[in-house]
């Protein structure tokens, strides 16, 4: 079967379309999925470049965190999906047997891992997965939309709904709109009734975000003080800040937050080492929150909202699987607004 594989780390130039052995019949608690489409995330770029301390399981390594397809076969113990069902794939899960997993909190499992990073990915014609990693979709979804939905939507949902406990009427500042998580965070914040400010270095992306409900767009390359722009617009700092940029934006995020505000982060794109004045932390009674992926309950919640037509991802472009290198390079350039998708099987 065909699969997009990383043959070495060091960049997307080491990606190649390979013929690899297909998976065998699924085990009792597994399903086999005929993958139709795979969506790219910045995590895929980091894996291709080589994550320090996180070696790929083996080479060649099948890439891809996000995917959707049809059930091709099921194990004897699987009951919640059937052959022929259209499914979306939850990219991350734990061991399934520890205290955290049994409580439905896989994200706290010490064996929690993400497809395409810690495990072989989904950019292949067929994959075997734990049955608990797939959820059937019944509504009208095109394959690119379904593949682009899971990781970014789940991550943004946990950040805002669970960790930050965002509620209607609050204000949210989202850094770097146009990326998958930031764009889904915008949709989720608006869906929950919040007022949203976004940043970007692109005026075109800011304009797109305004059409999606952002009431304030800030060009963070031409605006010296993002915090001041937020406070001048709302009369106070943001209640919640979504920051996955890290080192380059950390201090500006803190300046943009109101007393009692919450900063939630899921990444450190520009670096992980930041400074924090503890006096400001306790005086302003801020909450600094980390967030990674989401739980099975949260995945079920976002899929249910997707079935209702909410939170559907923005698709920037679709590439055939054979053009995976071009899609990765497009993502690395940072010009996209929304998700880039690879079509595995039409």
Describe this structure in words.
With 346 residues, this protein is α/β, with parallel strands linked by helices. It has helices at residues 42-49, 99-102, 143-148, 150-163, 180-191, 203-211, 226-234, 250-255, 278-284, 296-307, 324-333, and strands spanning 2-6, 15-19, 30-39, 61-62, 66-74, 86-89, 92-93, 113-114, 126-130, 134-136, 171-174, 195-200, 216-219, 238-242, 257-265, 287-290, 315-320, 339-343. The strands form four sheets. Strands 3, 5, 6, 9, 10, 17 and 18 form a seven-stranded mixed β-sheet that branches. Strands 13-12-11-14-15-16 form a six-stranded parallel β-sheet, with helices on both faces. Strand 14 (238-242), helix 8 and strand 15 (257-265) form a beta-alpha-beta unit. The longest helix is centred in the middle third of the chain and has 14 residues, at 150-163. The radius of gyration is 20 Å and the shape is globular.
């Amino acid at each position: 079967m065909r699969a997009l594989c990383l043959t070495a780390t060091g960049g997307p130039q080491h990606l190649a379309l390979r013929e690899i052995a297909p998976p065998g019949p699924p085990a009792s608690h597994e399903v086999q999925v005929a993958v139709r489409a795979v969506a790219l995330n910045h995590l895929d770029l980091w894996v291709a470049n080589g994550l320090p301390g996180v070696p790929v399981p083996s080479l060649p390594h099948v890439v891809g965190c996000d995917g959707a397809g049809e059930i091709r076969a099921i194990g004897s113990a699987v009951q919640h999906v059937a052959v022929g069902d259209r499914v979306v794939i939850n990219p991350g899960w734990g061991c399934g047997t520890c205290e955290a997993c049994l409580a439905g909190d896989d994200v706290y499992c010490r064996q929690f891992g993400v497809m395409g990073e810690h495990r072989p990915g989904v950019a292949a014609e067929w994959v075997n997965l734990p049955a608990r990693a797939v959820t059937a979709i019944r509504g009208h979804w095109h394959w690119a939309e379904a593949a682009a939905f899971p990781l970014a939507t789940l991550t943004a949902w946990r950040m805002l709904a669970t960790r930050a406990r965002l509620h209607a009427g609050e204000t949210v500042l989202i850094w770097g709109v146009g990326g998958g998580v930031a764009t889904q965070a915008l949709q989720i914040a608006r869906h929950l009734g919040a007022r949203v400010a976004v940043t970007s270095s692109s005026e075109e992306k800011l304009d797109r975000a305004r059409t999606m409900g952002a009431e304030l767009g800030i060009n963070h390359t031409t605006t010296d003080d993002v915090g001041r722009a937020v406070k001048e617009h709302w009369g106070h700092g943001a209640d919640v800040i979504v920051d996955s940029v890290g080192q380059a934006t950390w201090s500006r995020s803190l300046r943009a937050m109101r007393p009692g505000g919450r900063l939630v982060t899921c990444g450190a794109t520009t670096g992980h080492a930041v400074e924090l004045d503890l006096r400001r932390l306790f005086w302003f009674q801020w909450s600094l929150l980390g967030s990674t992926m989401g739980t099975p309950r949260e995945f079920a919640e976002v899929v249910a909202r997707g079935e209702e037509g909410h939170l559907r991802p923005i698709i920037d472009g679709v590439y055939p699987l054979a053009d995976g290198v071009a899609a990765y390079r497009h993502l690395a350039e940072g010009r996209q607004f929304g998700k880039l998708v690879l079509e595995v099987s039409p």
